[in-house]
Design goal:
The complex is a heterodimer. Chain A has three helices and no strands. Chain A is mostly helical. Chain A is globular. Chain B is globular, with a radius of gyration of 23 Å. Chain B has two domains: 390 residues, Thiolase/Chalcone synthase (Peroxisomal Thiolase, Chain A, domain 1, 3-Layer(aba) Sandwich); 57 residues. In chain B, strand 14 and strand 15 form a beta hairpin. The chains are: A mainly alpha, B alpha/beta. At the A-B interface, helix 1 and helix 2 of A face loops of B.
Amino acid sequence: MSESSTGNSEVYKQVVTVISKVLGIAQDVIKPESNFVNDLGADSLDRVTLVMALEDAFKRQIPEEDLDQLTTVDSTVTYIEKHLLAKSQP
Amino acid sequence: MSRRVVITGLGAFTSIGTTVEEFWRGCLNGSTSVADIPSKWNDFHHYSSRVWSPLPSLRNNSRIVNDIERTKLDTAAVLAMETAAEALHNAGLPPSLVDAKRNAYTLAEVDSARTGVFLGTGVGGLNSLLSNAAHHMLSLQQQRLQELAKLLASPEKNEQGLQIVERIASDILIPFRTNPFVVSMIMPNAVSSNIAIKFGIHGPAQTSCSACSSGTVAIGNAFQALRGGGIDMAIAGGVEYLCDEYGMVFRGFDVAKTLVSQGKQPFSHDQLNRPFDRDRSGFLFSQGGCGIMVLEDLEHARKRNANIICEIAAYSETCDGYNIMMMQPNGQQITRMLTQLLQSAGCAGQDVDYVNAHGTGTLLNDATEAEIIEHLFGKKVLVNSTKSLLGHAIGASGALGALVTALSIRHNTTHACKNLQNPVRDLNFVRSVGNHSIRTAVTQSFAFGGHNAALLLKAVA
């Protein structure tokens, strides 16, 4: 397993919970480096569903053009911390 | 001889009950659910009608659709799937999970290729269409108004302009996003296809779209498919969900003067909805609902020792071909339909014990329908209107009427016609719940567009 700076954060835990629900898989098979398509079996509609579920979980919109930035668990956590949570700071 | 079709399972989600048991108990108790229309709707228009019949929370009554699926479905489809699940349980066919990722189920001991889905709906996923269209059209305008509000707030404050702009911005009610699944949410056939997907059904999956008779037509189509021998089992019924943020659909019916309104009589909210009464003023707008039946070929049902509720003996439909929003005042095509129905079942009008009437509470419908009932069935036949309890659930109403008809045969009793004090005609309207021998019954629906449909149900000998 690769070392991940995000592997233990609250955001990471929330993201794993959402992925598990959307893809119907156990949380323990989801790793920081997991690629949604290659490792977790997501198809294109699953990825769109995942984005909606993340929007609902973090109560922030993710622009359609940013979808390509969300390919792995790690990249998703980084995106959320950088683009969604940073915006919500006062 | 053609095959016989029986009802072996029922499911219901209505304003007075979220299971078929609760719904039937509510019917016999004369329950109704009438409330002020959502206050937000009043921000957009002053309506003649001020009340509606809201549904209980669907989220608190979920059996089979999870939160992730809900983000991709219109509420009409969710209602249809949840109610179908109840009907299947009720028929002794509990679905079992086969695919956790898709949350998909299968029906053991059922040949999925010889099972069909037949659902009726007036407007399908209209609610999703309206909310997504609002987001598409207005999200940018709302953002611009919010920017304008900032400009008006400083440095030289324009209080009046600021208030106007802030009010406009806050009145724009839009969802969080334009849903990427919007196309599959709004298409009317989604109510049938989602049931087929949920339960792994591979026979015909059809959607009937004929306004207020949609549910009756759907059950009729299932009956004909079963009789024809192409399938052995069907999930059939009707569903509707009418609740947009702006009250637009309500306004459409209100502006057409079809809804209940406060007339000269000092009626309370619960008394405004008065099918077949001389003081009726229109129908009670319902948030919607769903009624589903499991239908089977009689031999198929007997082979699996199913609990047979009653038989569907005949179906008939006609079209007025007269007016898009008004029934033909002489009811010529309704009379022709019911005559065909009786002939098809080998019955005379006097053989019918009970008529579950369309009974909307509009002036023209009730006068015309009562006259036809007397002419064809006589004065002794029991008559009630389930809309006197539920209001008008449009595409679900015919299916819910058919459910009540089946339950009335099963239990040899039926519900009273609520709020009926001065009948429009001297018929045997059900005024209180009692024991009746109900062996043969008719349920009928008429619709915007002139679509007339009726089913004849019988106790199984």
